[in-house]
Specification:
- By secondary structure, the chain is of the alpha+beta class.
- The protein folds into two domains: about 1-30, no CATH class; about 35-220, Peptide deformylase (Peptide Deformylase).
- It has helices at about 1-10, 25-30, 55-70, 165-175, 195-200, 205-210; strands at about 75-80, 90, 110-120, 120-130, 130-140, 145-150, 155-160, 190-195, 215-220.
- The protein has a six-stranded antiparallel beta sheet, sandwiched between helices.
- A hairpin with a 2-residue loop joins strand 4 and strand 5 (about 130-140).
- The longest helix has 16 residues, at about 55-70.
Length: about 220
C-alpha cells in the first residue's frame, strides 16, 4: 500500500517547495503515528540503542518518523515522541506553517547518535514541539555542533552544522534522554502561544539570524 501511495504522490504536480509529497492529498493519505503529549510516560522512559540495522521494525520506525514529521509539519521528530523508545530521530529543516527561513536541508536519519562537540558560541531561538502543542519559548543552545550517528542503512557518519539544523538536532537528541524543551526555556515569562509566535517572532530579524544555516559538512567513517 505504501508503495502505491508513493507512486501516486510522485505523479502529482509540484506545488511550491516539496512537490507531490507535500501536497494536501498526500498529507491526507500519508500513514503516520500519533504524537504523544508532554506528561506521557514514553517521553521519560529509557530509550534503547538499535542493534539490528536490518530489522523490519527499524525500517517501519524510520518510515513512521518521516511520515509523521511531514504530516504534522515538523522539522524534526524523535522515536519517543511516537511512543517508540529507541535512540532514533529524523530532521528536515524546511518551510512549514510554523517556520519560514532561508536554507533548508534534506531529510536525515540519526540512529544511536552521539553529539561529540558543542561550540562555545550560543544562540537564542524560540522553540516549539509536537508534544507541547501551541507553545513556544526562548531556548539558548550552542550554535554549532558535531554529531556522530548511523544512517538508515547502518553506515556510520559524522555531521558538523550550525543554525536551525544544529538546533533541531539538539532538540531531538534531548528527547532520547527524556528532556523536553520546556525544561530549557531561558525565561518563562516570555512563553508565547503559537499564533503570537507566527505573527511576531517567526520572521523576526533575531529569530532568522539565529536560525540561518551556513554550515553543513558530512563525512563517513
Amino acid at each position: 500500500m505504501n508503495g502505491i501511495i508513493a507512486q501516486l504522490a510522485r505523479a502529482l504536480p509540484c506545488h511550491g517547495r516539496g512537490c507531490g509529497f507535500e501536497s494536501r492529498w498526500f498529507r491526507q493519505v500519508m500513514p503516520s503515528k500519533k504524537i504523544v503529549f508532554i506528561g506521557d510516560p514514553a517521553l521519560k522512559a529509557k530509550n534503547s540503542a538499535v542493534k539490528n540495522f536490518g530489522s523490519k521494525k527499524l525500517k517501519n520506525l524510520i518510515r513512521d518518523l518521516k511520515d509523521t514529521m511531514k504530516k504534522e509539519g515538523l522539522v524534526g521528530l524523535a522515536a519517543p515522541q511516537i511512543a517508540e523508545n529507541y535512540k532514533v530521530f529524523v530532521t528536515q529543516p524546511r518551510k512549514t506553517k510554523a517556520r519560514d527561513f532561508g536554507r533548508a536541508d534534506r531529510c536525515r536519519v540519526y540512529i544511536n547518535p552521539n553529539i561529540v562537540s558543542y561550540s562555545k558560541t550560543v544562540s537564542l531561538i524560540y522553540e516549539g514541539c509536537g508534544c507541547v502543542p501551541d507553545l513556544f519559548g526562548p531556548v539558548i543552545r550552542p550554535r554549532e555542533i558535531k554529531i556522530d550517528a548511523f544512517d538508515e542503512n547502518g553506515n556510520r557518519f559524522s555531521l558538523f552544522c550550525d543554525g536551525l539544523l544544529a538546533r533541531v538536532i539538539q532538540h531531538e537528541y534531548d528527547h532520547l534522554y527524556g528532556i523536553e524543551f520546556v525544561e530549557k526555556i531561558s525565561n518563562y515569562k516570555k512563553i508565547v502561544h503559537r499564533d503570537y509566535y507566527i505573527k511576531n517572532i517567526r520572521n523576526s530579524k533575531a529569530q532568522n539570524e539565529a536560525s540561518l544555516i551556513t554550515k553543513i559538512k558530512t563525512s563517513k567513517y
